[in-house]
User: What shape does this take?
Amino acid sequence: MRSRRAVLGLVLGSAVVGSACLGVVPFQPRAYDDAVRVEAVDMAFTREGTGTLTLKLKVRNPSSDAASLTRADIDLRVDGQRMITGEQVMVVPLDGLSEVPLELRFPLAVPRSAARPEPTSHAVRVEGGVVLRFGGSERRAPFRDARVLGIPWMPGGAVAPAP
Assistant: This one.
């Protein structure tokens, strides 16, 4: 009788401890640092001062446990000036050790001002992270990308984040 209780206690104890370890990648402490890759960055503006940032990512689940992508956060800088900081909530299932494409769109708004009508190159830097949820625990996979984009029409003057 005592041995049954000991075995039952061991099984229940390991189940509680095991549920807190979802999403862990043994022997790879930086596995989530390489889990997101920026595939493409695109910015487009209209003459009215509105615009869109489109970000295409490849998100890989480094764990053997199934997860769901729950949110992504970004910080966008153009020519060293912060243009947007935002978060997007989603529910995208992701099997263990698999990869999915993820496309994010963020609205941009700038005050009306004198425009630079000629296409010019701008230094664009995007940083952020994607959150993978494993049951009750979450792991954040960061990403960073810097590139020079030729933006066909970019409003001039100071920029403001979208509402």
Summary: The domain at 2-155 is CATH 2.60.40.10 (Immunoglobulin-like). The chain has one domain: 2-155. Helices lie at 2-19.
